[in-house]
Design brief:
Blueprint: E1 2-7, E2 10-15, H1 42-51, E3 53-57, E4 62-64, E5 72-86, E6 92-98, E7 103-104, E8 118-131, H2 132-141, H3 143-169, H4 172-187, E9 188-191, E10 194-197, H5 203-210, H6 214-226, E11 230-233, E12 236-239, H7 242-248
Antiparallel strand pairs: 1-2, 3-8, 4-8, 5-6, 5-7, 5-8, 9-10, 10-12, 11-12
């Protein structure tokens, strides 16, 4: 798959996988953790796969829910999964969109306690489910797998730390501009001087990621469009001026 990267004012396409998406200041860190099992040998990876069970979910289905008891983790083999938190009022904030190579269901990988957030399916997925008991057996018998899990949890910790930093130090306008930059970087296709975001994402989705309302997102996207930064029409989003949009990440409108 080709992923468009915009570096130093020039859009270039490089062979890449579909990246995870979450609010972060550092674009290069977005997909850290996707290869957390890469240190395993082929035989070790086969052992891990044999310990799990394959499960499939359709778009819109929930994988686990806030308040459920932890029972294990799911490795994403195909598709995309959203993790999100719902407040007492029912308002949701999207934590991340996870893709192939990542896992969901932490941090209590051995089971126990309750999930602090939920996960639902953004597109049809295939997951490998490992119970907490199976994970403990693998850790006891395969030190390299234990190191992989530590690396995976470190990546998750950095992700949520980056999210908290963005929510705590950036205005909502800056967060939206940064999210558009991230989408252009991870899901953009060069078309002339513009980047066409190939991932379909609604105003509701954008609002849930930046911590705002759909109405505010619609209004702010309209402002960006009038400035010539983007074009947004009928679910199609194009970044018309990457550098000026990037400037919006450092200065509120």
């Amino acid at each position: 798959m080709l992923s468009t990267r915009k570096m130093k004012g020039e859009a270039v396409q490089t062979p890449d996988r579909v990246s995870a998406v979450y609010l972060s200041e550092v674009l290069s860190d977005l997909d850290e953790g996707a290869d957390f099992l890469s240190r395993l040998t082929a035989d070790e990876l086969a052992t891990v796969r044999a310990a799990g069970s394959v499960c499939r979910f359709r778009k819109g289905e929930g994988v686990f829910f806030q308040g459920d008891r932890h029972s294990g983790i799911w490795l994403i083999e195909e598709g995309s999964v959203r993790t999100f938190y719902a407040g007492p009022s029912g308002r949701e904030i999207t934590l991340a969109l996870w893709t192939h190579g990542h896992f969901i269901g932490g941090p209590e990988i051995f089971g126990g306690g309750t999930h602090m957030w939920s996960a639902d399916v953004q597109e049809d997925v295939e997951l490998l489910y490992l119970t907490g008991a199976r994970i403990r057996q693998l850790v006891d018998s395969m030190p390299s797998f234990a190191i992989c899990l530590i690396n995976g949890l470190v990546a998750k910790g950095k992700c949520y730390s980056a999210l908290v930093q963005m929510l705590g130090t950036r205005s909502v306008t800056e967060r939206l501009a940064q999210l558009l930059i991230i989408l252009g970087d991870t899901h953009g296709r060069a078309e002339g001087n513009r980047l066409v975001v190939e991932k379909k994402i609604t105003h509701d989705h954008l609002a849930a990621i930046v911590g705002s309302t759909r109405q505010w997102v619609t209004m702010t996207l309209d402002k960006f469009q009038k400035k010539g930064l983007i074009t947004a029409c009928r679910g199609r989003l194009s970044i018309e001026n990457y550098d000026l949009l990037q400037a919006e990440t450092d200065s509120s409108c």
